[in-house]
Amino acid sequence: MTEAHPLRLFNSLTRQLEAFQPIHPGEARVYTCGPTVYNYPHIGNMRAYVFADVLGRTLSYLGYKLTHVINITDVGHLTDDADAGEDKMEKMAASEARSIWDIAEHYKQAYWADVRALNIREPAQWTVATDYVPQMIEFARQIAPRHCYELDSGLYFDVSTVPDYGRLARAVTEDGVSRIDPVPGKRNAADFAIWRKTPPGEKRQMEWDSPWGRGAPGWHLECSVMSGAVLGFPFDIHTGGIDHREIHHPCEIAQNQAHACSADPGANIWMHNNFLVERSGKMSKSSGEFLRLQLLIDKGYHPLAYRMLCLQAHYRSELEFSWEGLGAALTRLKRLVMAVEKARGPDAKRQRYEALELSANRSWFETAIAGDLNTPEALAALEDVLSSIQTNECKLAVVESYDSVLGLNLLNLTRADLRIRPKDAQITEAEIEAALAARKEARAAKDFARSDALRDELAARGVEVMDGDPLGWEWKLG
Ligand code: AMP
Ligand code: ZN
Predict the structure, then answer these.
(1) 8-277 has which CATH code?
(2) What is the pTM of this model?
């Protein structure tokens, strides 16, 4: 832990920057609300995990022993966060005529593929909701007598039984509640089901026996139970997207308080990433071609260009997606990769007087990340060191160290990896490379007619040859 740059994080509970004070000295325990695996994640969802990953990497960089848990929700998340609608998983399974277990497995694997592509580190544990149902029933059984009541449709949590329901959201009585469907018999509009009974005569694909009848756990209950089971209450940091600040996390907090018989919210710091927004509605999973990471890759963008796009904005700022913006992020990534490639050469002579510059730069970088994960500033510090320091050995050591936080995989990526190559191209890479090699030979033999002919042939098949491109992009597919 660097004394010089103590970590400060924005706590949504207090709406303030707070010094990070670990509950267990030297350790950091973090829980991140994970995906509901009923469909592919869109790139906005993945912003939430890039943010959580940067948080985890920062904690590791600063010397804390990190235990990070991300859950996989495979039951209980309704189409409306606020306790109404159908179970997302059941709905998708019905529409695809597949079993829920198949759906969950397929989309969990798809999510993990995106996690790997974005160089998000594996958490210490992935908790899968359906593995914890007995613990959920036990948790509900413990809090039920003092905090819950039963209706025909399920077991409901009475939010008036905890001291400050909705402190996190700040607006429970306005926006939040107006979105909640009235359920006959609910005591308060914000009350939520922690156990949903299967309606008589119906059978759900996923249902379990409980003291309140056959049914399924509520989504909020799942996260309280899994976070407490693995990390122990209270733990340090709970993360999620900003939408969770309004309903899901206030409900988790209420349950945690009920379980602890105190006002303790269960986690000391609650952090929320702002949204990635897109104007044309392509973020919606119900639109045909929605913005998933694979779409970016199919259009020729390396997935880490999307990670770069995320890092360029502070996690608490809204970030607008555009293809131009993604292209600019890719170019910026390519510049960094080129600078690293250049630094691989041997040092003629170690430069003197660089130690001071290096330590000033490191201080810049650490102030940035320790100041509520200021990744835009951390990127600037990295770029500065690459341009101002002469000694290659130092450059590479700094890149390795800073990239352990940024996660751009800078020591392994090559310029060729970052080349634009859309999936629907009419020509293979091997064909392009062969034509370019032949063209090189023709040029070496000063056969410029043949070299031009080869270039025209490539152009006719959509390949632009980029002689002398400053970023070393030898060709581009249109
Ligand atoms: P879900 O799978 O719907 O539970 O969402 C997974 C995560 O993505 C949650 O933390 C959400 O808060 C977050 N999220 C949803 N939409 C966006 C968005 N457009 N930008 C950033 N985060 C989002
Ligand atoms: Zn959650």
Answers:
(1) 3.40.50.620
(2) 0.93
